[in-house]
Fold:
Amino acid sequence: MAKMPPINRLRRMGLAAIPALFCSAIATPALANDKWPERPIRLVVNFAPGGAADVMGRAIAPTMSQALGQSVVVDNKPGANGNIGIGETVRSPKDGYTLLLSSGGGISINPLIYSKLPFNPEKDLIPVAAVARVHVFLETNPSVPVSNVGEFVKHLQAHAGKLSYGSPGPGSSPHLAGEMFKRAAKVEATHVPYKGAGPALTDVLSGQLQYWFDPGPGLKQVEAGKLKLLAIGSPQRSPLYPKVPTLAESGLPGFDADTLFGIYAPAGTPVPVVEAVRASVLKALEQKNVIEVIQGLGATPEPRMGRQEFVDHHAKERARFAPLIKEIGLKVD
Structure:
């Protein structure tokens, strides 16, 4: 595999600086040598195997490995709605050998719901590159006797508080989508948090949960007839399922539960290394097989999102979801 240009050569390439919002978090010390990377790079995925983050990480890792000249190894660190993986990344050496693939909720929403976080994602992480915009799909177990959103709302109302839905964790986009849905549709249901989308999907398939807002891994089960897809929680219909309506079209105007997944590095990681990682991610997002994997999750690749736009996205998400979090009293200690 081709070796990455040495760091001093990268500097001469005039690569862009990190945006102002996170500049205070970045140090630019010279590396110990000009041969980075000299050993495998760990890509921490802060959710369980089988979830959208895990699938994306394993899809982009081979191209990143080729571009950087070293193996990029996915390391799942699920738990606490992504906080375990985030914390491990923050505590890692700032040398470019530990990266994080996280949902935007882990970065933007967790500080709003956890009062005792041992880190500050805004100060302790550098947003490197957006990977994909993840949509959520309202799916039910086949045993639920409905075929559209209207029927499902009536079913929930007739069985108030008796149905359960799962999510990858408190404050995740599927959880917040579930809370938005309950308020918009005026229904009651029980939220069951899991350590990732994979375990939640398992229980929806088994019937232990009646429904969920799927961030993508369940779509193959929809195609296999093991789940029923009622709607998408995005502003627009999915090109994969053009006949499936949005929740806004189904009587819940303005419904939007999209989230952004991306790559982050510990604050203090040298700028040339961050830029080299970003270039490898963008290269991965050009590959047909990677695009197909991401689209297979019902998500949209985001190779054109600039660094500043990626940085600004976090503040916008906090502003968008803070009122809902306050209304439902969502706090995890």
In short: Confidence is low (pLDDT under 50) at residues 1-33.
